Give the backbone structure.
Amino acid sequence: MDSRRQIADTLLVTLKNSYPEAQGLPDDLYGFLEVPPDKNMGDYAFPCFRLSKALRKAPPMIAAQLAGVYAQPDLARAEAVNGYLNFFLNRSNFAQQTLDSVLAAGDRWGASEEGKGKTVCLDYSSINIAKRFHIGHLSTTVIGNSLKRIYDFLGWRTVSINHLGDWGTQFGKMIAAYKHWGDKEAVERGGVDEMTRLYVRFNQEEANNPALEEEGRAWFKKIEDGDPEALEIFHWFKDVTLKDAMRVYDVLGVHFDSYAGESFYADKTGRVVEELEKKGLLKDSDGAKIVDLEEYNMPPCLILKSDGATLYHTRDLAAALYRKETYNFDRCLYVVAYQQDLHFRQLFKVLELMGYDWAKDQMKHVAFGMVSFEGQALSTRKGVMILLDELLSRAQEKALDIIKEKSPNLPDKEDVARQVGVGAVVYATLQNNRIKDIDFWWDRALNFDGETGPYVQYTCARCGSVLRKAPDLGNAAPDYSALDNDEAQQLLLLLSRFPDAVKDAAEKYEPSMVTRATTELAKAYNKFYYEHRVLDDADPAGSKARLLLTEAVRNVIRTGLYLIGVEAPERM
Ligand code: ARG
């Protein structure tokens, strides 16, 4: 059990014993314990004004009284200061308890069963067929991947879904273009680029040739009707696009349980329309069908175009109902850029109006900011477009250059460069709160100092190297008083709080909280490492304690990196 929990529980007992007549006391004080900004004010502090109403007493009086009777010398002593009860952990015991628990957990410190029996669907990456996989889809891919790992770690059943953008009239046009000017080999060779070229040409020629438009429509109708030739080409386009994407997913260690995209729902929209109709929610608007959302200060949600075609919303409605029925989720997350904020608000509102109460608290748009690259906004139209696989290869090359220079004797340089390069990109994406825009700079991301992926990886490898170099200390009992110093205590505190960071990250859908907790740990270890000699021949028992601490830090950094989808090289 962690020390915060123990302090909270003892404090509650103390409180009840001291004020047996008190009414309306909180039944848990854990959440009230604060971490003081200054270490001299203790490791935890309890603000007694929280009790002044229930006890009808001034906070300083409560603090003084509780400090007088609070007794848990093995864990912490309490001091009353200005209405706060400050707790100072018993350092040696705290070290022993923390290391015992962390090391016993192996690579699962912070893991839990709290999600047992619950299911979360995560819709992320969700790329578009026949479009390049560029860095606009980087955030959704790595945030989603990290959230999946975090929820798994907390015992949830997770269902990761790549909601492919594979439906719409453009696919009819693409087939028409292919039939006119396309060439099988060129598409195999050029992949998505060739498809784009065909599509662009179609749009240019269509302007002067209205018959083409009709052809495109006819081909899309054929896809809808299941015409074998149309389907064959359509599926082939999909395969070619996905093959490209798979390369990126493999490098990033990203996996999906389902690739059911928009086309999967094409034949499941009928019941949505019927249901909307039956529930009196559909309205005519110039021949189109909409759900009016004016009352909720939103533009209408488009359900059917005047030619009867379904829309993005229609398919998302079908998808939401399908997921609920198929997976019976407790939460359904959509990791999609904040530009689609309105889309999701409309979607959730329509579900709610249909009577699905779960839409209110179980559906969540996990929005994130934009990515720019060395100060330049990205746009496919203006030509600044950075492809994800190019970005990842460049990162690996650059990392290799740095590694060759820094560690010329390292074996497996290529493999380490892959882990460092990719890790740098992923880390930079998950470093700050997701809603913040990201400006990606090579120098910054690949720096081995400062808050970067390579820095954290390097620290983890450093711990590994300390452990490898340690002599066999046999069964020497560790002397935990060797960890009474501030630097070791800070590390222990961060270790003990790591599980909270993981939980908070899941609650707030914010992988950056894990990134931060892991980075803090790395910084604190380096500080400890510079101030204290880990191995001291004259002091085997102290060395043993410092080695245990090093091992715990290594394990937890590795866990943190894993949870954000970054690998940890053994050596760097
Ligand atoms: N394909 C869409 C895009 O790239 C994202 C889809 C997100 N998921 C969803 N269920 N709408 O913008």
Summary: The longest helix spans residues 228-252. The pocket of arginine is lined by residues 123, 126, 128, 163, 165, 316, 319, 334, 336 (CB under 6 Å). The longest strand covers residues 76-81. The radius of gyration is 29 Å.
